[in-house]
């Protein structure tokens, strides 16, 4: 690749002189404004022809003309092929976030099904995030709901454990999953390692799309079990075969060619929606809508042409063998080549379709139109609420960003503070934060609030994020005082603090607002759109805090006190639990009784006793 940097002229961009210097080779171009900020990144088969199209006398859309008027310089990178240009373009878009490019807001990683490999009795579970654990990852799935559906089928059919390792290692008797026939209780040795591994292998085959092979193998094992008069085993294998055949019967006829993503697009009033159906083995596994941020007024075909490379190239998403679209894709050949290089196999982009595939595309397109209409209506309603809040607070401008804090704990245990963020488009979930509160008196909500605010606004002051226009505090004057002192200590100005206190009846609609900047209290009518917005933000902060607190509390309670004791590994924990029958009996045991367990020395017994009686 060769790079050409065109000299910058901040006073006026000379497009004629610039175009005389540009090559006709394929490559990528980057447009900058007078302050050197990136505006747009694009790729072209012929750079001179593509860039000349921006500076023609007529035929440009209003939004494209607005982009051109801001151009102060353009940098051009020449590549060896259009496919290489496409890959470089996507890399630059994802690293630089140009405002005029189609931006795909998708902050959450896709979920996978994970089967551990380091354990004699592997665990199956939903996984999201970095793939650091040793084992097999199947997916990605479009959402957690589809993962749970698959896990539910696998547990009923192959009865693989899903419990956390800490729970598995410390069981002394089978849990409820064994009682309802969704686990074979390997924790207490009710199934041999060999038989359990066979079940795991069958689950892996199913997730790999080899249902027919599993059925043949299970049928052979069922016949062998019948001949050996092992009728209970034969019945279990029969049930597994029946479940797999039922699942196959529920799938559509095109199962053999059914690994497909179907994309439909809809545009309305400057907004757009791309809806994707994820089809695997001929079965609709799930769907998802995306609302790309684009500022050039692209047509549906242009939007899909920009969306698809950003969605697949350079991401961890699975690239299916076929991608069906409701609109024709511009320059689809280099895109197919790039997808083939990424996936290591042939990938087809198809538009003109018949039969089931045409039905799928129609479904995706109709879903895109419906979801776009619903979103537009919701945003208009939300914007009206922001305008009402502006009026009620006598603000010069409509507030663009709200933050709200809340505290949750159980009698002082596992205190968690939440921070949620809303803008005129709704919740900004990528900016939500939780804070595990430490080193305070249990139950001291004031200290918890002060700690959370200082941690949050120290980070914002260092440039880690955006300051809100309004900071909502779920609480009365005491909580508000903590916010005022925290922001004053950090030197934060320009953030309006409002306390949201429940009224005397403690019912929704009777809240009292403490407006710090004006030293006054405000009670809005129950039907006020501004109050509805505050309630929505407050309730979301409450939900987010409670969810975090419960997760932290439950995690702490699931951990065995034995796990933190040096020298007490899985084998010794299992030996202790089997010897005494449970954790309560271990706590009651003397040092001498602990030392009587195989593998536990007197010194280790003393360490165990001290650790269990330290509180």
TrEMBL record:
UniProt-listed CDD domains: GIY-YIG_UvrC_Cho
Cross-referenced InterPro entries: GIY-YIG_endonuc, GIY-YIG_endonuc_sf, GIY-YIG_UvrC_Cho, Hlx-hairpin-Hlx_DNA-bd_motif, RuvA_2-like, UVR_dom, UVR_dom_sf, UvrABC_protein_C
This protein's UniProt keywords: Cytoplasm, DNA damage, DNA excision, DNA repair, Excision nuclease, SOS response
Cell compartment(s), UniProt: Cytoplasm
Keyword hit for Plastid: no
Domain UVR: 212-247
Domain GIY-YIG: 24-102
Residue ranges of every copy of the UvrC family homology region profile domain listed in the record: 262-487
Domain of life according to the entry: Bacteria
Subunit details: Interacts with UvrB in an incision complex.
Assigned protein family: Belongs to the UvrC family.
HAMAP family in the record: UvrC (MF_00203)
Function: The UvrABC repair system catalyzes the recognition and processing of DNA lesions. UvrC both incises the 5' and 3' sides of the lesion. The N-terminal half is responsible for the 3' incision and the C-terminal half is responsible for the 5' incision.
Official protein name in the record: UvrABC system protein C
Organism in which the protein naturally occurs: Microbulbifer flavimaris
């Amino acid at each position: 690749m060769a790079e050409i940097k065109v000299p910058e002229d901040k006073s006026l961009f000379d497009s004629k002189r610039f175009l005389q210097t540009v090559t006709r080779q394929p490559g990528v171009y980057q447009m900058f404004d007078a302050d050197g900020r990136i505006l747009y990144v694009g790729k072209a088969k012929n750079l001179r022809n593509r860039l000349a199209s921006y500076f023609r006398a007529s035929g440009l859309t209003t939004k494209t003309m607005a982009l051109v008027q801001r151009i102060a310089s353009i940098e051009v990178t020449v590549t060896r092929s259009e496919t290489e240009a496409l890959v470089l373009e996507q890399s630059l878009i994802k690293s630089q976030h140009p405002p005029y490019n189609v931006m795909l807001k998708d902050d959450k990683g896709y979920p996978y099904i994970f089967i551990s490999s380091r354990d004699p009795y592997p665990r199956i579970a939903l996984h999201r995030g970095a793939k650091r654990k040793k084992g097999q990852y199947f997916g990605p799935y479009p959402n957690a709901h589809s993962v749970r559906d698959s896990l539910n089928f696998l547990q009923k059919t192959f009865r693989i454990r899903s419990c956390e390792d800490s729970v598995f290692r410390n069981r002394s008797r089978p849990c409820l999953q064994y009682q309802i026939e969704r686990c074979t209780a390997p924790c207490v040795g009710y199934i041999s390692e060999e038989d359990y591994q066979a079940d795991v292998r069958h689950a892996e085959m199913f997730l790999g799309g080899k249902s027919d092979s599993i059925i043949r193998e299970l049928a052979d094992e069922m016949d062998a079990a019948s001949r050996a008069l092992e009728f209970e085993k034969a019945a279990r294998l029969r049930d597994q075969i029946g479940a797999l055949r039922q699942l196959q019967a529920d799938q559509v006829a095109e199962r053999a060619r059914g690994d497909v993503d179907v994309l439909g697009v809809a545009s309305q009033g400057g907004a757009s929606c791309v809806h994707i159906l994820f089809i695997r083995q001929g079965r609709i596994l799930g769907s998802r809508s995306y609302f790309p941020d684009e500022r050039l007024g692209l047509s549906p075909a242009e939007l899909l042409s920009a969306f698809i490379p950003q969605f697949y190239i350079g991401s961890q998403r699975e690239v299916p063998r076929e991608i069906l679209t409701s609109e024709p894709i511009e320059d689809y050949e280099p895109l197919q080549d790039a997808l083939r290089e990424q996936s290591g196999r042939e990938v087809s982009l198809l538009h003109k379709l018949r039969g089931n595939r045409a039905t799928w595309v129609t479904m995706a397109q109709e879903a895109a139109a419906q979801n776009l209409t619903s979103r537009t209506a919701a945003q208009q309603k939300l914007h009206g609420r922001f305008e009402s809040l502006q009026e009620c607070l006598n603000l010069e401008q409509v507030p663009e960003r709200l933050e709200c804090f809340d505290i949750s704990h159980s009698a002082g245990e596992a205190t968690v503070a939440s921070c949620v963020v809303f803008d005129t488009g709704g919740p900004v979930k990528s900016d939500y934060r939780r804070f595990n509160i430490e080193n305070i008196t249990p139950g001291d909500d004031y200290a918890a609030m002060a700690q959370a605010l200082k941690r949050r606004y120290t980070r914002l002051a260092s440039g880690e994020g955006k300051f809100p226009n309004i900071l909502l505090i779920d609480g009365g004057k005491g909580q508000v005082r903590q916010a005022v002192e925290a922001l004053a200590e950090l030197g934060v100005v320009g953030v309006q603090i409002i306390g949201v206190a429940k009224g005397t009846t403690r019912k929704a609609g009777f809240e009292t607002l403490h407006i710090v900047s004006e030293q006054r209290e405000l009670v809005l009518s129950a039907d006020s759109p501004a109050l509805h917005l505050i309630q929505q933000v407050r309730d979301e902060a409450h939900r987010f805090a409670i969810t975090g607190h419960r997760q932290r509390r439950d995690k702490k309670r699931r951990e065995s006190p034995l796990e933190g004791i040096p020298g007490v590994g899985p084998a010794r924990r299992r030996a202790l639990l089997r010897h005494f029958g449970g954790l309560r009996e271990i706590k009651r045991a003397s040092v001498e009784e602990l030392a009587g367990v195989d593998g536990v020395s007197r010194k280790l017994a003393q360490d165990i006793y001290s650790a269990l009686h330290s509180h």
